Structure to design on (515 residues):
């Protein structure tokens, strides 16, 4: 072949390649980033835009007012682990018998073969990351915290993970980056046990003189930073987190993630630890709310969210990023520590007009702040569509043009999430400490369950009753009037529809996590 002919073909080839590259780049530019911001125990009434007057949340309010504020947005469960399981897998948590509040030593709850939201995003060409609270188990039992933990979030779809294993009140109290404990000194290995203490180690129960925060119920095992925890831990001194710095620490990680991945489409799951116990605001937020530490950490979380938004703005990608903001379950005041949450509540009402709270089958257990925001793309609105976190898998899948694999309960509600219509789910099964209940349209059905009506320690009505409960939420949002007896036909049809999804053995559930 003559040289110039060869050069001609090479030229075409390179031309095509650079053409493809440019197309890909502009294609990438068009593909929106997706960020799920997940609060821990933030109630329906804890946000200004949802009616809070005693607590200022300007940054949450900004996206609520400039995006879509859903009035009927649900977590799948009234506790953390099951809600997170449903969020990431699109599968109802009650289908997995292990989807309960997990100890820090629990094995990974999600099957590594199972479809997940981050896996789907990775298939769509996104970089995927998680920063913050995990609480879905790690390893396959008997985790050695001194070697790389596996399987971990990376095995269920996250390219990058920077997490706490379980909760702020559970050991191990260390950060874990891609399976490695951050700042671990090999000469001071970590041991964790949820049954037995390690010889000679102080505990919240036996050493009250070492505590800067007192336990109310539970939370009397190992002491870290003067705070008694759930579970026993030994070693890892240099790796232990400082509770007051945690919010800033996760914020920095989330910001760094954005800066590092701004030139490619990314999916970030930013899972805050606030306002879960122990509530440990950084000193600059102490007293900021006037409502005690619970209010202060909400102000702190709102600040962190504002700073995170600033980063998206400064990096020039705010108008190309879909943000979904919500909470894993409803609010609780006293969740095991004496921290003035009850005493300093004043006129603040974390659950708004709803009944119940965290752990409850009543509305406040699962109906949570739920906001979608996309600068320039989503028009400000209030939507009454019933949407649930379980639907993010199919909905975000639709956004990136992929159908999730496997059997899922997730529904594609993308048009509602983008404000193109107000069509939500027809019905939804919610879960609370292994029990389930049913929402259909405006109606709420709670089957009979044994167990206390009131969780005394946390002072929350759980929804247990010896009879079926039926509420019309359109006229009785506070679930004060059980109208099952007046509406036998409605009751019967709802039980039938509920059982068609749930099966009919739900009533046998005795094994409640809370006794
Ligand atoms: C409970 C804890 C509570 C909290 C909850 C999990 C006791 C007495 N109570 O068992 O403090 O940690 O589990 O919360 O230990 S969640 O938001 O992660 O589901
Ligand atoms: Ca929670």
């Amino acid at each position: 072949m003559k040289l110039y002919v060869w050069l001609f073909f090479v030229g075409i080839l390179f031309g095509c390649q650079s053409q493809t590259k440019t197309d890909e780049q502009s294609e990438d530019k068009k593909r929106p980033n997706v960020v799920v911001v997940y609060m821990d125990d933030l109630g329906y009434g804890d946000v200004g835009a949802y009616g809070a007057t005693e607590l200022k949340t300007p940054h949450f309010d900004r996206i609520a007012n400039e995006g879509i504020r859903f009035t009927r947005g649900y977590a799948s469960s009234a506790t953390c682990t099951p809600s997170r399981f449903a969020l990431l897998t699109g599968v109802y948590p009650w289908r997995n018998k292990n989807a309960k509040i997990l100890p820090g030593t629990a094995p990974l709850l999600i099957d590594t073969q199972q479809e997940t939201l981050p896996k789907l995003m990775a298939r769509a060409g996104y970089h995927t990351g998680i920063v913050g609270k995990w609480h879905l188990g790690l390893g396959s039992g008997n985790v050695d915290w001194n070697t790389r933990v596996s399987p971990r979030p990376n095995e269920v779809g996250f390219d990058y993970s920077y997490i706490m294993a379980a909760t702020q009140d559970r050991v191990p109290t260390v950060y874990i980056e891609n399976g490695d404990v951050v700042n671990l000194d090999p000469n001071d290995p970590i041991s964790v046990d949820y049954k037995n203490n390690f010889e000679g180690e102080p505990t919240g129960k036996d050493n009250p003189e070492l505590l800067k925060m007192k336990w109310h119920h539970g939370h009397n095992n190992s002491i870290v930073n003067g705070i008694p925890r759930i579970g026993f831990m030994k070693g890892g001194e240099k790796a232990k987190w400082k509770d007051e710095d945690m919010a800033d620490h996760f914020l920095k990680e989330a910001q760094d993630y954005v800066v590092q991945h701004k030139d490619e489409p990314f999916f970030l799951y930013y899972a805050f630890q606030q306002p879960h116990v122990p509530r440990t605001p950084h000193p600059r937020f102490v007293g900021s709310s006037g409502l005690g530490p619970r209010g202060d950490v909400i102000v702190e979380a709102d600040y962190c969210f504002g700073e995170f938004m600033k980063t998206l703005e400064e990096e020039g990608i705010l108008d190309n990023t879909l943000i979904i903001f919500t909470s894993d379950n409803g609010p609780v005041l006293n969740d095991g520590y004496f921290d003035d949450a009850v005493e300093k509540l004043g006129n603040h009402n974390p659950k708004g007009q709803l009944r119940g709270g965290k752990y409850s089958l009543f509305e406040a257990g699962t109906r949570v702040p739920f906001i979608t925001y996309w600068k320039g793309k989503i028009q400000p609105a209030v939507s009454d569509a019933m949407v649930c976190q379980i639907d993010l898998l199919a909905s975000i899948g639709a956004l990136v043009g992929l159908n999730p694999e496997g059997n899922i309960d997730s529904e594609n509600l993308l048009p509602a999430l983008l404000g193109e219509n107000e069509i939500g789910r027809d019905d939804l099964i919610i879960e609370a400490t292994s029990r389930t209940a049913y929402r259909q349209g405006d109606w709420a059905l709670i089957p009979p369950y044994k167990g206390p009506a009131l969780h005394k320690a946390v002072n929350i009505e759980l929804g247990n009753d010896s009879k079926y409960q039926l509420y019309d939420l359109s006229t009785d949002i506070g679930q004060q009037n059980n109208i099952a007896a007046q509406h036998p036909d409605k009751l019967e049809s709802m039980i039938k529809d509920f059982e068609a999804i749930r099966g009919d053995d739900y009533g046998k559930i005795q094994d409640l996590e809370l006794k």
